Amino acid sequence: MSIGELLAATVPMVRTLNLEYLETTPERAVLSLPDQSEYRNHVGGPHAGAMFTLGESASGAIVLAAFGDQLSRAVPLPVTAEIAFKKIALGPVKATATLGRPAGDVVAELDAGKRPEFPVTVAIQREDGAVTTEMTVVWTLRPNS
Fold it and tell me: For the chain: N or C, fewer Cβ within 10 A?
């Protein structure tokens, strides 16, 4: 089962918004949000809440891809999220997430008995390639008790 299939099966919001996992690797995750009238805002584009969910879901996908081998000893959890709306989004949008720190450094902190935190940056783009939204989600790997 792929990470996208796993998340679609276990996270109801993914199914609600019909998010599509286009790529999920430890280097990047790319998800799309189709244009759906029931999730539009007052200007006809995707609602801010839908775009937040898209970005957070992309960040979670890369976290699972990069640290899935650590799940037996730590739980990945979002700590904070910041989002900036730069341009009006219309139509379908695509989110691309990247890790802000090398995965090896994060695992080394976990190995040292620490609770590492690391940023994941997300760019959300319209079909014409314009970045409409920038997001940073800080994640942690909480060691299991």
Answer: C
